[in-house]
Write a structure and sequence with these properties.
The protein has helices spanning 2-20, 102-105, 122-135, 137-140, 149-152, 164-168, 171-180, 194-211; strands at 107-108, 111-112. It has 238 residues and is an all-alpha fold. The protein has a domain at 100-214: Cytochrome c-like domain (Cytochrome Bc1 Complex, Chain D, domain 2, Orthogonal Bundle), CATH 1.10.760.10. Strands 1-2 form a two-stranded antiparallel ribbon. Helix 3 crosses helix 8 (194-211). It starts with a helix and ends in a 27-residue tail after the last helix. The structure holds heme C (HEC). Residues 135-136, 138-140, 150, 155, 157-159, 161, 166, 174, 177-178, 182-185, 188, 200, 204 line the site of heme C.
Length: 238
């Protein structure tokens, strides 16, 4: 019984190899496949010629004047292209993130940079306040203390932006959090244009100072207006 099976098995193995294997010739035909592989299909190969089009090329040329997504057009190196030289709303890059510079990414080389790349004016701060109140307050709260309305509805992970950690965080990293989100905070890059993100950071820094002010922040001539505290105020960091 077992012997009979072995003989039949051997014979059929030889038969299968005789029909399908060792054919002795090379073939450009697709191999026999029960389920055809997607890798073998009609397609235009990159940079390969193709008789279908009149010019004999497979890939088509881009329409004249096409600019790739995310590509920043080279600008002449003139003073008006300096970010600080013009108002934030007339800035040549007043748009969503393009390019890889600090203004667009918050990064200087491989590290988070710090400092506001726009001139801090009253206009910028007011814009920042308006944008912060529209896009951040419902979660982070009016003074960024992490007590926005969404907390009551169960968004428990909202953090206070008054924390030491966020006060010490570089502007570039905060810019990146606004742009790309962080953990449970979603990205706001698609909603907030680049100069508005910097305006929000400028305003957030003011909020942080407002909640952590020390007596040294009050100009000398205004100190007399403060009520004398019964005991010296607790020393707080900047
Ligand atoms: C829908 C709610 C929501 C909104 C709106 C929101 N955030 Fe957040 N944010 C969060 C949550 C939640 C976290 C905590 C993320 C975590 O670590 O899980 C957070 C964290 C942060 C952090 C700390 C990131 C870190 O590194 O730990 C910063 C900075 C921040 N938000 C800034 C902003 C700014 C600026 C805005 C407005 C443009 C904003 N957020 C809008 C929910 C929100």
């Amino acid at each position: 019984m077992l012997r009979g099976f072995l003989v039949i098995f051997l014979l059929s193995t030889i038969a299968v190899i005789a029909v399908f294997g060792f054919r002795g010739q090379k073939s450009t035909q697709p191999p026999t496949e029960v389920f055809p592989d997607m890798v073998r299909q009609m397609k235009v190969r990159a940079q390969a010629p193709l008789g279908f089009f009149a010019d004999g090329r497979g890939p088509r040329l881009p329409v004249a004047g096409t600019v790739p997504i995310g590509y920043e057009m080279p600008k002449p190196d003139t003073p008006e292209n300096e970010p600080a030289a013009v108002g934030p709303w007339s800035h040549p890059n007043a748009s969503f993130s393009v390019g890889t510079d600090y203004y667009n990414t918050g990064k200087m080389g491989d590290h988070w940079g710090t400092g506001l790349p726009l001139e801090v004016t009253r206009e910028l701060m007011e814009r920042g306040q308006q944008r912060f109140n529209i896009t951040c307050v419902m979660c982070h709260g009016a003074v960024a203390a992490g007590d926005g309305i969404t907390k009551k509805y169960g968004l428990a992970t909202v953090v206070s932006l008054q924390d030491e950690r966020i006060r010490k965080m570089s502007d570039g990293e905060i810019f990146n959090t606004i742009t790309n989100g962080k953990n449970t905070m979603m990205a706001y890059g698609p909603n907030i244009i680049v100069p508005d993100r910097w305006a929000i950071i400028a305003y957030l820094r003011a909020l942080q100072r407002s909640q952590n002010a020390a007596i040294a922040d009050v100009p000398d001539e205004n100190r007399s207006e403060l009520e004398k505290p019964a005991s010296p105020p607790p020393a707080k960091g900047k």
